[in-house]
Amino acid sequence: xxxxxxxxxxxxxxxxxxxxxxxxxxxxxxxxxxxxxxxxxxxxxxxxxxxxxxxxxxxxxxxxxxxxxxxxxxxxxxxxxxxxxxxxxxxxxxxxxxxxxxxxxxxxxxxxxxxxxxxxxxxxxxxxxxxxxxxxxxxxxxxxxxxxxxxxxxxxxxxxxxxxxxxxxxxxxxxxxxxxxxxxxxxxxxxxxxxxxxxxxxxxxxxxxxxxxxxxxxxxxxxxxxxxxxxxxxxxxxxxxxxxxxxxxxxxxxxxxxxxxxxxxxxxxxxxxxxxxxxxxxxxxxxxxxxxxxxxxxxxxxxxxxxxxxxxxxxxxxxx
Length: 320
Description:
This protein is mainly beta. The protein has two domains: about 1-30 and about 195-315, Methylamine Dehydrogenase, Chain H, CATH 2.130.10; about 35-125. About 5% of the residues lie in helices and about 50% in strands. The chain is built from one helix and 28 strands. Strands 1-28-27-26 form a four-stranded antiparallel beta sheet, with no helix packed on it. A four-stranded antiparallel beta sheet has the order 2-3-4-5, with no helix packed on it. InterPro entries: Tex1/THOC3, WD40/YVTN_repeat-like_dom_sf, WD40_PAC1, WD40_repeat_CS, WD40_repeat_dom_sf, WD40_rpt. One of its GO terms (cellular component) is THO complex part of transcription export complex. Keywords: Repeat, WD repeat. Belongs to the THOC3 family.
């Protein structure tokens, strides 16, 4: 049924398997993400800074570095429809919003704890940030004021809205996915997704599926409407830390402490390609309109193995 598509994709990546590496930071990169128009890539690092790169066909150029956070930048998230707005969550107990047009921070929102997760609702109106104490703070993106806070009595890992911003999802330490209505945050469903900690969650661009990655080394694919698990991707051997759907929803990238990033065909689970890496991978992100995958690993400096490299890579360029 899908064999022709699978063959085409496998063949595409045989000739488009080049990775390009960019040194962006002086310490490890925790998070990468593309702007909604695909023209820019942002990276957030343990060195407290955010770097912005511009993509021109096959070339990525570093545009600027934003400083201001007093702690590690653990996760970043672009506005879903406004290509110039970027939000960052930091261990310095704040969220910052950056405007690429003026190249500076346009808002700093102080929160109660060390922030580790951030997500921007697809309708652009709300930013949610989760901290190490399992408190989720909801910020009004128009006024940059805190709207509400929710304290959970379980380990909250990644958080996300669905594609219509009507439901809010969070993954937890007991392997569950909590689905809450938004904005009233009433629990609608609790899915027992994995036997181990549920680490990451991602919605596919078509709105049909979401996927979760777990400490059990599995990635599960769910039907958004039926809330049924459709298939499980089993090629990883270590806890799955980060996942990303490609722009057309055909591919799912998964990464962990395995020394490869797995690229799977969503509808069948078939392997399309894999990317060999030298260290644990923290973050992966597909480009919003091209088959290019940005990622960052726990790489060490080539000359000083004790030092983190602070680099990121983009895979999927044509092999010369």
